[in-house]
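Record 1 of the preview.
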Amino acid sequence: MITDAELLELEMLLIDKYENHVFKKILYNEMTNEIIAFFEDLEYLLVEYSGRYRVFSTKVIMSLDLFNLLKMRYFPANETVSITTLKMYN
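->
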């Protein structure tokens, strides 16, 4: 079992990694309220949220709420996070 000190160290390492991470394109589907991002950008952070996202090839789809939770926790000041809203037409 992991110790509390090891857990704290791991958390700090993840925060450091993601504060300086250069994110690829992130899309927002406003009809489904979901984020579509590259899985490799978020795979280490999603481990503890099993069942709350879907992976398709190189992309991951998750709720906007889950993405915002990850953002607040691990990369609140990362300036490379740019979300593009998908435009849906009838």
